[in-house]
């Protein structure tokens, strides 16, 4: 059962390309959204 994987923890939109290259489906950038 394949599940989507998201990178979390201190990330910003600038980290998205690296996370995608590592196999993540996306990032959780809560702090970046509120900053």
Throw out a few tags for this protein.
two-stranded parallel sheet; 31% helix; 2 helices; alpha+beta; 35 residues; 17% strand; 2 strands
Q: Can you walk through the features of this model?
A:
This protein has helices at 16-21, 30-34, and strands spanning 6-8, 26-28. By secondary structure, it is an alpha+beta fold. It has one domain. The chain has a two-stranded parallel sheet with strand order 1-2. The longest helix is centred in the middle third of the chain and has 6 residues, at 16-21.
Uncertain segments are none
Mean pLDDT equals 88
* Beta strands, count: 2
> Order of strands in the sheet with the most strands?
1-2
The SSE string, one letter per element, is EHEH
Share in β-strands? 15-25%
Number of helices: 2
How many independent structural domains?
1
Write the layout of secondary structure elements.
Layout: E1 6-8, H1 16-21, E2 26-28, H2 30-34
Parallel strand pairs: 1-2
Brief summary of the model shown:
The chain has 35 residues and is α+β, with helices and mostly antiparallel strands. It is built from two helices and two strands.
